[in-house]
């Protein structure tokens, strides 16, 4: 079954399912020849186990350990989890004591104020791990750090893990996506792409409004990232770029999934399928592009795609015809 069906049956979003796959927690049993995820009933059972362990309060790393067939028994895992929880409580208690001291001092007490500054200065460490820890502590602290400082650090951050921590800290700062407006206009495409990744972490219409202009960005990869981010928010404006991604590849699978999500959330299935049909009929479309477009139809409601697939089942391109017949058979 495709990722959309798994999402509907399990209640776990397609985005989270892809995240689980990246972590190695839930890797589909197979993929189609065109790269689409193909889940089995066994994968669904595995997904239920993952969600059950997460409901107990386990981190994803602990969930992975618990599901490892070679890992220690549940009693050892629970004991380890309890020990980690005690250690975290000790760290949080120490942090709370420092913050309580900071909030109780007079405005002129520089010693306490400088303690907070030292934490923020950790963002300037030459060691990526220290920058990541500083960002996580700032995000967890009610005092936090000025959004401008977090954005400056984020736009310059090259480490994947530290950048992820900075994005999280920025969301936790409570400043809102609006603080990224100028960064999303940065003339440097690398910095602009980092700002886009941060904006995608914010919920709500403001973040969507900030992302949409990047659908016209001069840099192709930024346009693609913006389309996928907007598609995850069911923004219909992303449809043309997403359709172009299906035609051109290599991110056609992600784009097809985003198109299907837009179709479901905005009741735009008919309009999107008309656009796909038009792309299939484009006389300059390559065989590979038409094959990807046909594969993308597998993400939509079989009842809606049946007429188009029936026509494609007699297509002169054998690969397109075979794919259409397979999807028709699967949908019955």
Could you give the topology of this structure?
Layout: H1 3-10, H2 14-23, E1 30-31, E2 37-38, H3 41-55, H4 60-67, H5 74-104, H6 110-121, H7 128-140, H8 147-156, H9 160-172, H10 189-199, H11 205-211, H12 220-232, H13 239-248, H14 252-266, H15 269-280, H16 287-296, H17 302-312, H18 318-331
Antiparallel strand pairs: 1-2
Short recap of the structure:
With 332 residues, the protein is mainly α. It has helices at residues 3-10, 14-23, 41-55, 60-67, 74-104, 110-121, 128-140, 147-156, 160-172, 189-199, 205-211, 220-232, 239-248, 252-266, 269-280, 287-296, 302-312, 318-331, and strands spanning 30-31, 37-38.
| Shape type | globular
The proportion of residues forming helix, as a percent range, comes to: 55-70%
Tally of alpha and pi helices: 18
What radius of gyration results from the CA coordinates? Answer: 24 Å
The structural class is mainly alpha
Beta strand %: under 5%
- Secondary-structure element series: HHEEHHHHHHHHHHHHHHHH
Distance between the termini: 13 Å
Major beta sheet, strand line-up: 1-2
The overall pLDDT, averaged over residues, is 85
Secondary structure tally: strands: 2
Main beta sheet: 2 strands, antiparallel
Domain HTH merR-type: 1-69
GO molecular function: DNA binding; DNA-binding transcription factor activity
Keywords: DNA-binding
Organism: Leucobacter komagatae
